[in-house]
Design brief:
CATH superfamily of the largest domain: P-loop containing nucleotide triphosphate hydrolases
CATH architecture of the largest domain: 3-Layer(aba) Sandwich
Oligomer: single chain
CATH class of the largest domain: Alpha Beta
Number of helices: 20
Distance between the termini: 30 Å
Strand content: 5-15%
Shape: globular
Largest sheet: 5 strands, antiparallel
Number of domains: 4
Strand order of the largest sheet: 1-2-3-5-4
Radius of gyration: 25 Å
């Protein structure tokens, strides 16, 4: 779906630039293409007033104009000056670009130390990051800088060693210089990313928490404690996936030389398919966290575009980022959105180009130590050429968990909670078998809430059973308790 432009194509802005198609848009701002390959930022007066009040923008910085009954502010820039939301900024091409962003980050917070910048707009022309005051979780500057430097990986600059592995083109001395220029601490802290799981990054407000913990907190310390320590991968509630990942991925990574001697290279690409809530995302999150590798994601919110060739370009860029950071993981979520059968559906000639880009990139990425995992709820829609061996060697069905798997997950979830002797996961597992894993987590969480509400200091079986009774299956619309919705 094409973005709706606030202004007509060709409309002349106060600084002489002429509007083209919108590139990014939000409720209070829009970035449009201009003639000469430049861009213009258009903001509602309300948003500009907040920038002015905080000292981040002066009255003369953005030109004031009216269109209809609405008052706007605008500033345009040439093609050599970056103007984009942080969620879609490309990684720097050289040290100068990196220093320019670091300077903008420092200058912005010297003026306004309180405004969050994870959803800001980078205006290189002003050396400013203009916050958009969205509802995304606050993210510290060290993670904002790491995200921008890597072109989308959620890595804090406090994990200098991990950044060094991902930014080999930059050099250690230059990396420290950039971090210091941003006004941040350049002392490597291997515990920084593993210490606080609440620092998940929502830079682009995608409405998903997919892999936030896994790729934001998988630093060197965690890697030593998992893939290199010899400890087994654990996927409570997903025994078959645990066995598959352990055999076809973890063991190959751990014993690389042994497998290479027999002609076995990097782990092959894998497709996981099954109904919503069956645990595909959970399993991939745990695998990424276990490996401790940088993780990149392709989904509709990151690469989809209404413009011809734009989606293919973004797909190519994401593969390039993953290969530069190898070994890494590239997750293709809702793969049917990009890789549906080229012989069906509307707009098929555009789809042909997108599918062709994946066909070309998947084998190349695997050769460059990028682990590709795709997920879908609609495997029957996928183009047959994609599903052939040599691209995705493994196609794994993931169903809802059985009683044994539910019992294993319940044991894991209950392990660290204070509970009395009445707690027994067996009857709960019997009733939760065949339901989404999210239902299992909900019952434990709701049971704990009911216990606390009753004034108890420990979780009891009675509260867990009450929680189960209040949570009828949404896959089987029975006569359970409802309040207008299920």
């Amino acid at each position: 779906m094409a973005l709706e432009s606030w202004l007509p194509i060709g409309y002349e802005l106060p600084d002489g630039a002429r509007c083209g198609r919108p590139r990014y848009t939000d409720f209070n701002w829009q970035i449009v293409e201009t003639q000469g390959a430049g861009y213009a930022l258009i903001a509602r007066e309300y948003l500009f007033a907040k920038w002015a009040a905080s000292g981040l923008a002066d009255v003369g910085d953005l030109h004031r104009f009216m269109f209809g009954s609405e008052i706007y502010r605008e500033v345009s820039c040439g093609p050599s000056q970056m103007l984009a939301p942080l969620s879609d900024c490309r990684s720097p091409a050289n040290k100068s670009e990196a220093l320019a962003f670091a300077t903008a980050l420092r200058e912005t917070h010297m003026i306004d130390a309180d405004s969050p910048l994870q959803d800001a707009i980078y205006v290189e022309k002003f050396s400013r990051l203009l916050p958009t005051y969205g509802i995304t979780s606050h993210t510290d500057d060290d993670t904002v800088l790491g995200y921008w430097l890597t072109g989308g990986a959620r890595v804090s600059t406090k994990s200098v060693r991990r950044l060094q592995q991902m930014l080999t083109w930059l050099g250690t001395t230059h990396l420290y210089e950039i971090i210091l220029t941003a006004g941040l601490d350049a002392t490597d802290d291997p515990n920084a990313e593993a210490a606080d799981d609440s620092r998940a990054l929502d830079l682009d407000e995608r409405g998903t928490t997919f892999l936030h913990q896994a790729d934001a907190h998988g630093g060197d310390l965690k890697r030593r404690a998992t893939i290199d320590s010899g400890k087994p991968l654990s996927l409570p509630g997903r025994v078959e996936l645990e066995a598959f990942f352990s055999e076809h991925i973890v063991d190959i990574v751990r014993h690389k030389e042994r497998y290479q001697e027999l002609g076995i290279g990097f782990p092959s690409a894998t497709v996981l398919y099954g109904p919503p809530g069956c645990g595909k995302t959970f399993a991939v999150e745990q695998l990424v966290e276990f490996l401790g590798w940088p993780c990149f994601q392709i989904d509709a919110s990151t690469v989809a575009s209404p413009f011809i060739h734009e989606t293919s370009r973004k797909v190519s860029e994401m593969f390039e980022k993953a290969m530069r950071s190898a070994p890494s993981v590239l997750v293709i979520d809702e793969m049917e959105a990009f890789l549906a059968d080229r012989e069906t559906g509307a707009g098929s000639h555009h789809r042909v180009e997108e599918v062709a880009e994946f066909l070309r990139r998947i084998p190349e990425a695997a050769k460059n130590e990028v682990l590709i995992i795709a997920m879908t709820n609609r495997v029957e829609m996928i183009d047959p050429a994609i599903m052939r061996r040599g691209r995705f060697d493994h196609v794994i069905a993931v169903s809802y968990p059985d009683e044994t798997e539910v019992a294993a997950l319940l044991t894991k979830l209950l392990a660290n909670l204070p509970k009395d002797r009445t707690v027994d996961p067996v009857p709960l597992a019997q009733k939760l078998a065949g339901r989404p894993l999210s239902d299992v987590a909900f019952v434990v969480r709701e049971g704990a809430r009911l216990s606390a509400r009753a004034g108890a200091s420990r979780l009891g079986q009675e509260s867990l059973l009450a929680a189960l009774e209040s949570a009828p299956s949404r896959t089987e619309l029975g006569s359970g308790r409802r309040i207008g919705f299920v």
